[in-house]
Amino acid sequence: MTTSSAARREPETDDRVTTVVITHDGRSRLERSLARSSRPLIVVDNASTDGSPATARRIAPDARVIELVENAGAVARNIGARAARSPYVAFADDDSWWTPGSLSLAADVLDAHPSIGLVAARVLVGKDATPDPFCEVLARSPLPRPASQPGTTVLGFMACAVVVRRDALLEVGGFDSLVHIYGEEERVALDLAEAGHRLCYLDDVVVRHVPAPPSAKAARRRRLARNDVLTAVMRLPARTVARRVARHVREGRAGVLGVVDALTQLPGALAVRRPVGHDVEIQSRIVDLVDGPQAPDVPEPPPRRPTVPLPRGKQEMSPAPEGTVRPMATCSVCGNRYDRAFTITTADDETLVFDSFECAIHALAPRCAHCGCRVIGHGQQVGEQMFCCAHCAREATGAEVADRA
Question: Is the pLDDT reported for residue 4 higher than 70?
């Protein structure tokens, strides 16, 4: 099928999922995306001045178009979700659309697994459909996944590429006006997880995203830093807030200005502060440690100090000659610089640097296939699956195993 014939294909219709598209001065983008957008369809216009609502009505006369008198940012998605009458809502921006079959697949997964509250999709960017790097972050999420459920467990998503249970989203308050736009997903993800919903990434659910060439990158980085700090203030421990502030200050001018912007909004963030529980906070910390910042356009951390691979499984912790200063090495997991770091070379010949055994465990220890905890001891193995104890092995496989005395 050629590109032109694919563009003329009738949009997918699945009454279980309403597609909510938000736009602001996106007339030219809507010209390309709306004809491909799945139905039922709601378009929420964030106070455009370029005639976007009229364009939406012309291209998609069957869609409901909601015009806002001011730009509500991400909160426009809440308005669209409230207007929907389906159990699930798929979000899109004016420069993205869902590929045929994807929403039905997501709805099937949500129907079959009531514990899943959100399905994040794979995003193909540009005319050449290049996979978005953030999808790789989601695909290799370190969070535990129940053996009986699909996808990887995640604590983040792209708002233009997600299907969510409508009631679950509205019960946690949806997107908030304080963050407004850019990085608005994290607080929603934390609140959904805290409410007991599993968030998963499915590679077979696909969104096409054809954004305009990026502009004002410094302003975007500044906004991302601001919202990253504000989200931490609203939901995470003070130590996490401090780590994020320090990280953004190290990024340079845009990061510093973002932190200053966050400080001006601090009273509003503190007024709605509701820290997540221990389990979700630990998951958030693990994601932060393993993957680092999860927002686009954030500078990469400085390169790690080169290390010489050691014999497999060996550790490097040799004393420095007296009177010399040890070189500082950066931990591969938490990013801490430490003069007594050590390296471990895995069976795959990957050399990693750690500042503590705790970080080494987070990076290397296998996860129990039933409860998801790290297996530090010998554990129990049934077939190809590893379990932390006999109880988990029995619960997951029915195997007659017992812990050794």
Answer: no
Please report how the helices 253-264 and 238-251 are oriented relative to each other, as an axis angle in degrees rounded to 10: 140
Q: What is the pLDDT of residue 294?
A: 42
CA angle, residues 371, 377, 380, in degrees to nearest 5: 60
DSSP element (H, E) containing 91: strand 88-93
The predicted structure's pLDDT at residue 347: 60
**pLDDT (tens digit, 9 = 90+) per residue, 302-313?**
443 343 343 444
What pLDDT band is residue 359 in, cutting at 50, 70 and 90? confident
Cβ density class 334-361: b for 16+ within 10 Å, e for less: bbeebeebbbbbeeeeebbbbbbeebbe
Q: What is the CA radius of gyration of the chain?
A: 23
Are 122 and 205 spatial neighbours (Cβ–Cβ below 8 Å)?
yes
Joined together, the tokens standing for residue 400 give: 């007659």
Interacting residues of 238 by C-beta distance below 8 A, sequence separation 6+? none
Tell me the pLDDT band of 260, cut-offs 50, 70 and 90: very high
Give the separation between CA 285 and CA 58, rounded to whole angstroms: 47
Nearest CA-CA partner of 224 in 123, 121, 119, 299: 299
**Paired residues of 92 in beta bridges:** 21
Between CA 81 and CA 96 the distance in angstroms is 18
Q: Which residue has the higher pLDDT, 4 or 66?
A: 66
**Cβ(92)–Cβ(56) under 8 Å?**
no
pTM: 0.72
Predicted local distance difference test score (pLDDT) of residue 398: 82
Residues near 254 by beta carbon (within 8 Å), at least 6 away in sequence: 218, 219, 221, 222, 225
Residue type, 53: P
Query: Comparing 74 with 330, which gets the higher pLDDT?
Result: 74
Q: What is the DSSP letter of 161?
A: S
- What is the DSSP pairing of strand 88-93 with strand 162-165? antiparallel
Residues in the chain, total: 405
Q: Is residue 100 classed exposed, middle or buried when 0-12, 13-18 and 19+ CB atoms within 10 A define those classes?
A: middle
Token readout for 42 is 């709601």
Phi first, then psi: give them for residue 105, nearest 5 degrees.
-65, -45
